[in-house]
Structure formats: C-alpha cells, structure tokens
Amino acid sequence: MDSGIETNDSVLSEGDRAIKPAVFKAIVDRPIKKPRTAKDVSLPEVPKVIDNGNGKRYFRGRLLGKGGFARVYEVTDMSTNKVYALKAVPKVKLSKSADRYNKIESEIELHKSLRQRYVVGFYGNFEDEHHVYILLELCSRKV
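Above: the chain's sequence. Below: its structure in token form.
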C-alpha cells in the first residue's frame, strides 16, 4: 500500500522494527512557505547625526550591540564631545503591540528613578519620526 510516505523500515530486520522507530519523510507537492521573522522586516536606519529637538546633537559612532528590538550605539555630544551609549528602538517594532511600548516607557521610568553607583547612568530620552532614543552612560570594559 502506497500512502505517499516513505519509511526506512525496509533496511531494518524484523527484531529491530519493534525497538527503533521509523523515520518518516513526507513527500510534499508544493513548496513550504517560510515563516516571516523579525529579521525579514526592514528597519529604519539610525541617522549619522541625531537631533534631540532641544538643540543637542549627537554623532552616531560604532554599533555596541543589538537585542530583541533595539540597537545600542556609541554617540558623541557634538557641543561637549562627551561620549554616551544611545539605545535606539525603532517605532515600527513598538507599533506591533501596546505591551512593547509600555515596556519602553517603564524602562525609561525605571532609569529615571535609579541613581546608583552600580547602575548604568541615565541622561535622558527623546524620539524622532522613526525611533525612540534612550541616552545612557557609556560603560568601559575596565573593572
């Protein structure tokens, strides 16, 4: 009987069939549709010069890291030459659910309320048309 499924039973002896399960290979007539992932969605590029809307401008440097829905860059304040870490969260990622937007808001509120020696310093937040930005202390790798 041909059920459209091939097994490897023919290479097993009668005693092995009871112990080893058969490996099935499904025969598919149509191509399998690849699920869409977050990486498939193109994200807006973070500009080289970021304006916070209050006269401060930051020059975007190297990428420090990326996570689930944000990227962190080294930035330099163009008026003082101070170096910071800037977390850039694309609004495209936030618009998918209210929960994600609430998560960013609570992260900002938490940073605002904490002033501890061993917690990354918070210097402000702002947004533009495409991103929400969180300006943080740049931590060196020195211990």
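The mean pLDDT is 77.
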